[in-house]
Amino acid sequence: MLATHNAGKVRELIELLRSYRVQAVAAGELGLEEPEETGKSFRSNACLKAVAASASGLPAIADDSGLSVAALGGEPGIHSARWAGKEKDFDHAMQMVENKLRAVGATQPAQRRADFVCALCLAWPDGHVEEFEGKVQGTVIWPPRGDHGFGYDPMFLPDGYSRTFGEMSAEEKHGLPPTGTGLSHRTRAFLKLAEACLEKR
Fold first, then answer.
1. Is 64 a catalytic residue?
2. What is the per-residue DSSP string for the chain?
3. Catalytic residue among 63, 64, 115, 153, which?
4. N or C: which end of the chain has fewer CB within 10 A?
5. Looking at the domain assignment, is residue 143 inside a domain?
């Protein structure tokens, strides 16, 4: 089970699981509510969600991820989704990031360094838990570019690339090796999970 109600995360995780003998269903399809994210880290929030969903009797994978901007002391970090509000308005959230960067005088690329971080937790009904984390480094740009992906993707330019996550196809962003590069933070965390827990077809 995918312990998330975020349609973008569900879509990406299903694509990542496609090469493995795993049938996935989203928590929302089973009518399960998401618990309040009270953890102090990506890992703790991912595990909180996975453990809650595993009470249904199914193994559960949960994701907690976000954008961590160095000049903002790591914000929005674990509050990345909250910055978008109940309406999930990430245009507003990206504008908040830009406004805060301008307020601290971070106008040059070297001052706008950021990490995209993803923690994945796999929780089994018997209480066993596995944790994995992936990270990709880059720069926050303005204005945002591209309409692919979701969240902060259009303002994140990964190191070594000329296009933002928002300008990349799904295959380019998180395609699995050997055909893909395994670029995104979610893919990097997933590859660790797959190596430990899944069998490739």
1. yes
2. -B----HHHHHHHHHHHTTBS----BGGGGTPPPPP---SSHHHHHHHHHHHHHTTSS-EEEEEEEEEEGGGTT-BGGGTTGGGTTTT-HHHHHHHHHHHHHHTT--SGGG-EEEEEEEEEEE-TTS-EEEEEEEEEEEE-SS---SSSSTTGGGEEETT-SS-GGGS-HHHHHPPTTTS---SHHHHHHHHHHHHH--B-
3. 64
4. C
5. yes
